[in-house]
Amino acid sequence: MPTEKTIRRKRNKIVREVRKNLEAKGLYSVEYEPAIARYADMQMEYDHLTELYISEDYPFETETQTGTKKAPIVTTLESLRQMMLAYENALGLTPRADKRLTEERQTKAAGGFNAILNKLDGMDFD
Length: 126
What we know:
Structural class: mainly alpha
């Protein structure tokens, strides 16, 4: 079992990597720190559960009195994966989010340029 220091070190590494990716894309803001911290926690939990899932030889189904059902660990991993993807999209860390943010920047830049042209259009230069 990992020590608290090892866990903290791994979590801090995830936070640094996310922050670095956001900074590289020009998206980082200190206001994102709580979301980055939650994302790091989810990543840590996902990694831990994945290791457990592998060590248990990938138990996909479990037996119940009424038959078989999906193993709880599988359901948990699926939920975490969906939540992490939502955070990654919100933070701009996926290709889809990157495309959306790029389009938003271009629209915003074009809007500013169009506003300047509209102001110039109404001016009399004679």
